[in-house]
Amino acid sequence: MRYLLIFLCVGVLFISYHYKTENYTAFLTEKAWKLSLDGQPLESNWAFVLNKLMRFLLNDFVTIALIQLLFQKLAYTKFAFGVMLFSLLVLLPIFFLANALSWPGTFVSMLHRLTMNPVLLMLLIPAFYFQVKKDGEVGS
Q1: In terms of pTM, does the model score above 0.85?
Q2: What is the mean pLDDT of residues 126-135?
Q3: Which residues contact 125 (CB under 8 A, 6 or more apart)?
Q4: How far apart, in whole angstroms, are the C-alpha atoms of residue 45 and residue 16?
């Protein structure tokens, strides 16, 4: 059952990534949310924020579930949740602000990858694996 759930989590992450433009109201683009509003209705700006937030939460919660399923250690899951909270409370608001103020595309693109794709959490998987290997607990 555990392996089926791991496969399901990986599948959800692939589907979320593959349909990233179709999901969460595909008519919106990252350029839709501007402080100046650029003729965009305010509802579109909030829809953009809500849709990005939904994608962030889906990806991160699935990745945290994957970490729990792979390692079955509450300490690892708590640490991953802390990383998610950091991303949610620090990186995501910076991403929205950078997007709204039209900061350089490279900066916004980097923030987008860190927040919308669970990059920080996915980097924890090899780190936790090597920690488990170092502690001699591989295969348990």
Answers
A1: no
A2: 90
A3: 66, 67, 70
A4: 21
